[in-house]
Amino acid sequence: MPINKALELAYEKDLDLVNISPNAVPPVCKIMDYGKYRFEQAKREKDAKKNQKVIEIKEIRLIGVGIDTHDFETKANHAIKFLQGGNKVKFSIRFRGRELGHPEMGIELMERFAAHCGEAGNVEKAAKMEGRNMLMFMAPKSGK
User: Fold this and answer.
1) Segments of the chain assigned to CATH 3.30.110.10
2) What pLDDT, in 10s, does the model give residues 86-128?
3) What is the pTM of this model?
4) Residue 143 — very low, low, confident or very high, per pLDDT cuts 50/70/90?
5) Does domain 57-140 have CATH number 3.40.30.10?
6) What string of DSSP letters covers the chain?
């Protein structure tokens, strides 16, 4: 159908002529209420966004490996809350001074964290030294 005739039809029905597929030969157009179409499309996108779960990475930071039991339990309990809330947790230990010569102490501490938080999450990335810091990532267990 010629463009002029399609425009006349759209004008008579008080609707818009919308180009659906401009790359097709011949181009495909549709007569519709474009404002209503845009509103419904925005509504669908909003509903899709509402159903998405945003996963954040929360960080538990320790300065040094000489952490006492109560401090350890407090930090681990915070990590468990984060994991149960559906967030990933990044554990980081900053080594100071002579502690750098004993990375095995940091690995042992990270393993204690992983064991303590084991029911709420899984180790996603094992403990690894990066400069003065040791990092480990845990993800929430699936199915929760």
Assistant:
1) 57-140
2) 899 999 999 988 888 888 999 999 999 999 988 888 998 999 9
3) 0.61
4) low
5) no
6) --HHHHHHHHHHTT-EEEEEETTSSSPEEEEE-HHHHHHHHHHHHHHHHHH--PPPEEEEEEESS---HHHHHHHHHHHHHHHHTT-EEEEEEE--GGGGG-HHHHHHHHHHHHHHTTTTEEEEEEEEEETTEEEEEEEEPTT-
